[in-house]
Amino acid sequence: MSSMTGPRRSLVSTLLVSAAAGVATLAALFVCAGLAPGASTTTLAVVGGLAATLVVFVLDRLVATRLVWNGVSAVSDGPLGLAEGDYGVRLERVLAASAAIAVIVNEAGHVIHANPPAVAFFGAGKRIDGSLLTELMAAGPPELRDAASAAHDVLFTCERGDADEPETFHLAKHPFEISTRRHTLFILRPLTKELARKEVETWKKAIRVLSHEVDNSLAPITSLIHSARLMLANPAGFQQRLGAALDTIEERATHLKTFLDGYASFARLPLPAKRTVAWKELLGGVEGLYRFKLEGTLPDAPVHADPGQVQQVLINLLKNAAESGSLPDDITLTVAGERGGVEVMVRDRGKGMAPDVLRSVLLPFYSTKKSGSGLGLPLCREIVEAHGGRLALHPRDGGGLVVSCWLPPGA
């Protein structure tokens, strides 16, 4: 017999106690009647009949109580099952209408639902229900497999056989429960087209920013040059003011050149001038600029890459980590062999990135900093991909951000 819940146990216990008390009372009456002097057979029969009737009534109530309780349990459990089933149906309908690639995986790692984009992406149009997610991921690029095994959402780029250029994806994972069993919803969103569309918008924004910045610098320069000519026409008493005007012109011209150099470095990134360089030598050009802790040991094998460009990537990543609000002691750098190549990881304990920021941070000119150009991470991605590598970002366990750069062998 299954265990009883509190209300059921209380009701049955009350009936049993009442029955026991009634039977005991009637038994006592029956005994007293039997022992009483002059008790007639009729009296004994009446008392015995009352006792039998009470026993039958109590047993009948017990049986009825069990039947009623079972019915109540069925009714109470019914809406729960209906609600869970309805939840699943509504979720499947939402996913079916989504353009994102979505699969639901059970505790054993099997796919129990895949929307049409997921069937097209993983199964080439064939059903994938019942398949192991790890097997589906293993058949794809290694970046996708690594993203699926991560504990958090991941932004990454990878190459696919049917694509001419590397594609950018955002993988999100959402755990939930159905019937007390844990499930996970994986949503893989291709961002390549979205990035291309947004890049057009950001280039337009960049042109407006450039125009505004150039105007802000040229306007005072033009005005000061005009004033300087007037001072030269009558130099007496204007030497000090002339010097201040020339200083301002020089400051605005230097600022404008620095500003434009940042855009030019992104727009005219040269092809990597690769050579074989040891990791110790490569990191030697970075140490001292920003504080970080080197975790683990550096690989013995050198890397075949453009030292200046790889150092620029590391400088940008360490600069971002330092400006994230992280303590310097919490900023770490790791270089380790991975998938036949080498992976460089920069971790911090800063404020991290919200999901919407994570999806847009690789866009040129997108920045959450008031004084940021929005070129640091896009430039890092351009350099890493020019070396045949891949760049990925995801939140760090316990807070912060992890940026990993994978470089292929012989990069």
Notable traits:
12 strands, elongated
Describe this structure in words.
By secondary structure, the protein is of the alpha+beta class. The protein contains eleven helices and twelve strands. It has helices spanning 6-35, 41-96, 116-123, 133-138, 142-149, 192-233, 239-267, 279-284, 307-322, 355-360, 376-386, and strands at residues 101-105, 111-114, 154-158, 167-178, 181-190, 275-277, 293-295, 303-305, 332-338, 341-347, 390-395, 401-407. A ten-stranded mixed β-sheet has the order 2-1-5-4-3-11-12-10-9-7, with helices on both faces. α1 packs antiparallel against α2 (41-96), α6 (192-233) runs antiparallel to α7 and α9 runs antiparallel to α11. The protein is elongated and about 90 Å long. The two termini are 69 Å apart. Mean pLDDT is 74; it is low at 1-17, 29-37 and 58-84.
Short synopsis of the structure:
The chain is of the alpha+beta class and 411 residues long. Helix content is 53%, strand content 18%.
